[in-house]
Write a structure and sequence with these properties.
Number of domains: 1
Order of helices and strands: HEEHEHEHEHEEHEHHEEEHHHHH
Helix content: 55-70%
Strand order of the largest sheet: 4-3-2-5-8-6-9
Oligomer: single chain
Distance between the termini: 62 Å
Number of strands: 11
CATH architecture: Alpha-Beta Complex
Mean pLDDT: 88
Number of helices: 13
Low-confidence stretches: none
Strand content: 5-15%
Structural class: alpha/beta
CATH superfamily: Spore Coat Polysaccharide Biosynthesis Protein SpsA, Chain A
């Protein structure tokens, strides 16, 4: 095959170099994950020895010294399909508790306004707030509008709120989260409880991969992050910020605590609180020993396009725009965690190289089976690197399956292993879209709320 030999040589070199790049990158990332795994195992061993407790029942918390009123912020743009049910459900789940719920709408979204006002007419704790600008702006801008209404409410009632709790229009809230926040916010500037995505039988692979990622992130990663006293990023839902801390940030920013052009205002808020010396706490607390976690439940995108759009916003906001605004931090724990947060673009590049190398290797294998062509022999060093990575990959998949199985049962834990491929594909597509959008976005125009369609859980109780 004299005419094909140069092409085969190029394919061999390309596959080898891509394999080396991907293997080296995977090794570095896997070692970082292994450190987090080891720290989590250490925390669990300390808990088993009685030195610490990673999961506490709510009655074991320090009692509330000064019970207070809490503000719940729910930004809503084109949420007519879920906002009514969400507000109704939240109303009966929070019944008898001292709170005010502020739902932010836009004048050019009359359907959402109508649904919200219909529920507000029956529930005196709800305040429907109309943004002065037409939608969509950003969720951060909507939250700033809600903050201004909170300030006006305090002046009118002469009652100061104790905290601000963030939720989305598709959230199934937990009845005990306000008592938990009421107790914890006296000792911490920010308190985050777990988010538990709901499995979607119609989308076991795409929506299901969110279950896997959050089970590990909120079962291990944030636990370690809080133990290291690194800044705890808010998940945007199931998060309470102490009122005085939010006011200090607002005063620094001309009355708006959230950056109006931020795509991930929740993530940035948690790190901003930490930079100002406020302690953030991620808590896995149960109503009583042996019962379920006090957590937030919701459905996540069930289609490929919606998942890619959502993760594009996360990548842009955290790895790109967040880097611009927040920079780095001097503390080694915070620096390491920010580096980990912002590695998504590089991780996607490494994954792309790995899959391309696999495709080239498979093509060369087919050629070798059909022709006299002989596959090249990899060097001993590269073979050793691949063997080490194979062991680390097996461990990584086992850890992912363990945390998914712990939350959703052993069957979902097994499915988490092949679902990792789906997560990789979505991550690569989102990283490419995020990088393109970041590089070619007009700098003189603020970003807009690139939201996905939501559905509200049909169940009355969390699983």
């Amino acid at each position: 095959m004299p005419g094909v030999e140069p092409l085969l040589a190029i394919a061999e070199i390309t596959a080898t170099e891509l394999t080396l790049f991907a293997a080296a990158g995977f090794l570095v990332g896997a070692l970082g994950d292994l450190i987090i795994d080891g720290l989590w195992i250490g925390l669990k061993l300390r808990a088993l020895s009685g030195k610490t407790r990673s999961e506490t029942a709510i009655e074991d918390l320090r009692p509330t010294v000064r019970p207070g009123r809490h503000a719940v912020f729910v930004p809503a743009w084109q949420e007519a399909g879920v906002i009514g049910t969400m507000l109704e459900t939240t109303g009966w789940r929070f019944a008898g508790q001292d709170y005010r719920l502020f739902v932010g709408c836009y004048a050019n979204d009359p359907d959402t306004i109508a649904e919200a006002r219909a529920v507000a007419a029956r529930q005196p704790n709800i305040r429907v707030v109309i943004n002065s600008q037409p939608g969509p702006t950003t969720k951060a801008d909507c939250l700033n509008t809600l903050y201004q209404m909170l300030v006006a409410e305090e002046r009118r009632t002469e009652i100061r709120f104790k905290s601000v709790i963030l939720h989305d229009a598709e959230d199934l809230v937990h009845p005990s989260e306000i008592p938990l926040f009421d107790a914890m916010i006296e000792h911490h500037a920010l308190v985050q409880i777990p988010m538990v995505p709901l499995p979607d039988p119609r989308s076991r692979w795409i929506a299901g991969h969110y279950c896997d990622e959050f089970a590990e992130a909120h079962g291990k990663d944030l636990v370690v992050r809080a133990a290291l006293r690194a800044g705890v990023p808010s998940a945007g839902v199931g998060c309470a910020i102490r009122r005085d801390i939010l006011q200090k940030i607002a005063e620094e920013r001309g009355g708006a605590p959230f950056h109006p052009d931020s795509l991930t205002e929740d993530y940035e808020l948690g790190l901003t609180v930490a930079e100002r010396g406020g302690s953030g706490r991620f808590v896995r607390v149960r109503e009583e020993q042996g019962s379920g976690l006090i957590a937030i439940h919701s459905h996540f995108p069930a289609t490929l396009g919606a998942a890619v759009r959502q993760k594009t916003r996360w990548v842009q906001g955290i790895a790109l725009y967040g880097w611009e605004r927040l920079g780095w931090h001097r503390g080694w724990a915070d620096f390491g965690m920010r580096l980990r947060d912002r590695s998504s673009i590089l991780a996607a590049l490494i994954l792309s190289a790995a899959y391309l190398a696999m495709a080239l290797a498979f093509a060369l294998l087919l050629v070798s089976l059909a022709t006299p062509y002989t596959l090249p022999v990899l060097s001993e060093g590269l073979m050793l690197l691949l063997q080490i990575n194979a062991v680390l990959l097996a461990w990584r998949l086992m850890v992912r399956g363990f945390f998914t199985g712990k939350t959703y049962g052993w069957m979902e834990g097994l499915l988490a292993i092949p679902r990792a491929v789906i997560g990789n594909i979505i991550a690569m597509m989102a990283a490419r879209r995020a990088m393109t959008g970041y590089l070619f976005a007009p700098r003189d125009r603020p970003p807009q709320w690139d939201k996905t369609d939501h559905i509200f859980p049909e169940i009355a109780e969390a699983p």
